[in-house]
Each structure stands twice: as structure tokens, then as C-alpha cells.
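Assess this:
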Amino acid sequence: MASTYSSALNLELQTTGENSGTWGTIVNNNLQKLESATKGYVSVAIASTTDSLTATDGSTTDEQSNAIIKLTGSLTGNTTMQCEAVESWYIVDNATSMGTYTLGFKPAGGTAASLVSSSKHLLYTDGSTMFDVLADCGNVTANGTLAVAGNVSFDGGTFVFNESSADLDFRIEGNGDANLFFSDAGNDRIGIKTNSPSTELHVVGGVKATGAIDFDGGGFVFNESHAAVDFRIETDTLTHAFFADGSADKIGFGTSSPAGAAVEINQANSSGAIACLALDQDDTDEPFIKFDGDSQSDTSGNITTDTSIGSLTGYIRVDVSGTDRWIPYYATS
């Protein structure tokens, strides 16, 4: 009876009484194939878009029997490299020039695993499907630096950085900013576009919120550094419903350039039939307006008690509880 061959490594299985005179050579060939299957290396140049590893019964030169396979060459289209449809495992070094094409590795007639350009893969097959071990592995611990050149996707679980609460900073770099996001672990602070945040959240640049902002449990300070910066609140129709002019130290309502007083109200809506200022004092035994000024008997102070300072010129209309009232004013020299 002639020799037969194993399915996985194509080892020659000898029959008793056969191969007289060549038995030692056959045994040595089998031992070499076993060595290749555990530690062997072969470099294979891609020859076509549907290429196959060589697999020869009893031969020590077949490519498929090696544990480590390096694929080289330039792809001319989407390409598949295949092995025999038998159980096996491989370490594959994809050193091909892929361009925009894809490269798969599969058992003949089966399902391929996709190879990444300039990457190394740990693969195994059950004879019908090729599996990439690191594409679906369990817990992974890296004691050194873990560098990822491709995309990273966290799906189906939480992500925790610095679980041990060590003094370890976390930094995200942008296209043009080295500290787009910076977590200062030693000071328990977060910096946006700064690696030295001075408070719990320090932003260098603009901040925009499209939703509600709730300040609860603390004060709010704008322009702590006393810079000449403005503060503006916009409403539905007014661009300067409230305006703090930082350089002029003035407040404007309805105006972006308060000039006539420290506080200026500009009623721009003539069709609304509303007053510039409405006062509603719920405490009925208190005045509506309190003036802190210098009252004199002449015109040298803020307030005067002299009724003979000039001719009565006119009146200022005010609405008191829905009724028009008049405050007299006098022309003075």
C-alpha cells in the first residue's frame, strides 16, 4: 500500500513495509515540515488578484507549511491570498503596496480576513473561515506604550483613564494646537488650548453653548482681569439689549455706544407704545427712586431746594399707576 498524506501539513504517512531505502529521507522531510509549521518563515510575492500559497504533498518547499508568511509586491486590484481549506494558524506580515485596494487572506472557497497595510496579523482558520485573533480578543494588557496608527472605536463599554488616581496627565492634540484638551492630574484641572489651567476649567479662546447654562452654588464673574472687553446680551430683535462697554465703563440698554450717561437707555421701538423705563415698587412705603446726591439751596449741588433759579420751562411726563403725571423743570443760566 502506498503512502498517504496528512490534511493539515501534507506530511507523508508511511505504510509498513513501504519506501525501502527512502524511509530516512521521508522522515527527515516530515521533521522539516513540522519545524516550518512551528517556526518557519517564507516571503511570498503577490502574483495576481487571486493568488494561492503553494502546498505540495511531502515537499519541504511549499509555502503553506510555514508559520510566518510575509506578503510582498504591489496590488493591481482588490486581491485575495488563499491557503488550503484545512485547519491551521499563521502569522502574516502584510508588506505589500496596497494603494487603494484591499487584501484578504482566506482558506480556499471560504471567508477571508481583511489585512491592514504595513501590519502584522495573528490568524487561524477552521478550514472555512479565516479569523484575525486581535480583531476579536479578550482582555489586553500593555505594560509598555500602546501606539495606534489607525482608528480607535470604543463601543459597548466604558472608557476609564487613570483608574489608579496617579499623577498622570491626559492630552488631546488638534491639527494646529498641541493642547486642544489637557487634563492636569496633579492639580485636578481641565484646560482647553492650555496645558497650565489656572482653575477647574480653563478655556483659552471662545465658548459657545446652544443649550441652557446653569450656574448653581457659586458666583459668576466676567472680566476678572479688568481688560477693555465688552459684554453683550442679544434678544429677538435687539443686538444690544444689554451692553457693557468695557473701555468706556458704561452700560447701555438698546445701544452699543452709551455716551450720554453711565447708564443709557435707548428705546428704538416706536411702534411698541411702551416706556423706556418701568418702575414697580411692591413695597408701598418706600420711594420709587432713591437719589444719593448733594442737596444745596443753590445750583452748586446735585439737588437744589431753590425754586427761583429760573423760569418754568416745561414738564416731564411720567406714568404713575396708569395715570400721566408731570415733573416740572426750569431753565437755568
Q: What stands out?
A: Helices lie at 23-39. The mean pLDDT is 89.
